[in-house]
Fold each of these.
Amino acid sequence: TSLGEIERGGPEQMIYVTADASHLAAGSYSATLYITSNGGNALVAVKLQVGAGRGQSQSLLNVTPSTLSFGTVGAGTQSTHTVVVANLGTRSLHWNAAVANASWLNLDASAGTIPPGGLPQMIHVTVDTTNLTAQLYSATVQIDSNGGSAPVRVTVAVAGPSQTPGPGTPPTLVVPPPPAKLVVTPRQLTFSNVLQ
């Protein structure tokens, strides 16, 4: 994908970046992805290490981001962010994800398999503040696999109920929504132990 449009409050969009070492000699390579938008610009550094011949076959878990901050969410609402699970190894990756002691946090996927060179898989992480009081909450999404483990820390601040102005109260100033802001993660991609 080379372009897209995200509505205000809409879910993240993914750009799948594939490294093809079939015509490369052994060695180190680098490149830069330039991402431009009406909400700012970003650079993503790409590094590729190509190995000669056949190396040791293994799975390698890669999870981004390592933290999810939902910011401040109103009481009685839901908000969703995305965690990306990838396999940087040369064997199939079998992963599972779980959340402990946080009934307000839900995952739309809890397990999967990614073949070597396969596309990453997404976990949509949803915060539901329906039964939460106004305070800061945190939890951990634990992702385990045959290629390593990775915790993802999740935080959300729940706002108290808004107050409805009574009769005779002067109208409040309506503040326009903030302008679009580009957020890119991760800011560096590393492909290691890729065979020719």
Amino acid sequence: LLFDRLADMGYGPETDLSRLSYALLPSFPPLDTPEGGEALARHLDAVQAKWPEHHLVVVVDTIGRAICGEENSADTFRNFYTYTGIRLKRRGATWVRLDHAGKDADRGQRGSSGKGDDVDVIWHLKQTENGVTLQRYRARMSWVPERVTLKLNESPLSYVPLSFGDWPSGTGEVANILDRLEVPLNAKRRQAAEALRSIGEGRRHDLVTAALRFRLERERGAS
């Protein structure tokens, strides 16, 4: 699977990936334990000894697979910081901790609120019509932007920043359904929502609103 993803991103046998160190979890003891923090430190020592002139970036994907403590316990993440996080900061390394938001992402991240105590920025990743958006949830620095929108390119697989926003995921599909139902371009959200519900295709209010704006802009672009 890893090689498939690398190939999708345009890498191949001729590509020098010697600076990529990939450890399949759980290659180390849990990172919220002394043994886990020490094992990762030894691994990073070896990487830095080989590439002393390069900056170290560590990605933990995902935190739930790298710890042994209860996800709802603040002690779990305090231990992670004590045994692993503080070591990474002392090295001057950039580190990213990936996590799953849970069923209702609008209510914040799942598990203990202590998850965010030891990080500088928390981003919520959401799919959009043409890529993804990183929505700032919390940040220690005032200069962190509220939203970063990235466009997905498929060949090769890559994400590039957009200077403007993107439509919510599913906007184009809903717009096409409204077209088939011959809902007027100047229809109000309630009228469009009722038309969708009448055929069992009800959608969130924000998505219906986006689809109506999408149709108007598409019409202007075609004229």
Amino acid sequence: MIRLSDIEDAQTILEGRILRTPMLPAPRLSELTGADVFVKYENLQVTNSFKERGALNKLASLAAADRARGVIAMSAGNHAQAVAYHAAKLGIAATIVMPVTTPAVKVAATRAYGATVVLHGETIAEAQARAEDLRAQHGLVFIHPYDDPRIIAGQGTIAIEMLEERPDLDCLIVPIGGGGLIAGNAIAAKAINPAIEVVGVEAELYPSMWSALHGEDRPCGGATLAEGIAVKNVGKLTLPIIRDLVSDVVLVSESQLERAVNAYLTLQKTMAEGAGAAGLAAMLKEQARFAGKRVGLILCGGNIDPRILASIMVRELERGEQIVSFRLTIPDRPGVLGQIASRLGDLGANILEVDHKRLFLDVPAKGARLDVTVETRDRAHAEEIIAALAAEGFHPVRIHASDVME
């Protein structure tokens, strides 16, 4: 049993050793979702995720003999960094097993904190099996990322802080991987305010907790933006807590995760990884459900690969038709390209890319195909540009990202 008193004890241990992160109103996210949104910025911890809370609470509890043996953990990144960072501060040797699919930025950060990193397997489950082997071989102390009472208690300190600042919250929306974060916060939140609703979020590709709660066996796997919650095996300790205290688990798509990551960056000017943005993704999916409620979101991590983030931003511009591509069939004579470029400039379009082709058989012998990508203000502006080109006889055809390019 994990009680509020255990979480309060963890809060005492953590005080002054981790950041009490700010929880701030998010008016632009409120406007986007129709709810009254407050964000808890756990991405501001030293290792940029909430995992420091549970890791430090567990490491601080180890006896001197266990500290001397050294510790081992498996993680897709955030637990790894948290264990590595706080183990180093406590003088404990740490070995971390990470899936080979872990973003390079997380692997590099874990090594930088002084841990020995072992890359093994495609999934957390495979990494865990290797970690268990190494633990047995070298007599190391295993620091589980979620299925440990002290880890759960450490994570639960977030809800205490949130409700100290906003006791009137109607709902907490919490990402779910193995369940440590939501289990600890559900225990704390429900003990402080039994009326509060706690809702979990998983990626559609990894519905492990949803399946366990519903007695189903949905497919689980694939490349997800939310690798931090891409967990196939739910916790033995966390499952019964979630079953008792969590009202629902929402499954979110990859496009909803992308939109949420982009919203945090462009509207809140803060970095969220896929798992960190999962709560907002749930609100975007089920806006009517949360409309008008005071909702607390835990932005639980900000460790995202910059290349992936750049790709998400461009993809969202394409979804919002602020970047559009179209194909024109034009007469193949001097000056036409300049004419089109000038016309696009007159229409306020910024040309990003041009591909000029003459040798396709479906183009007239005296014609050419012109593929153009432009930056626009919004969807209405894009439609205005297409209409103007059509009126001038260029027969524009929209090219969508899903189209197969010739």
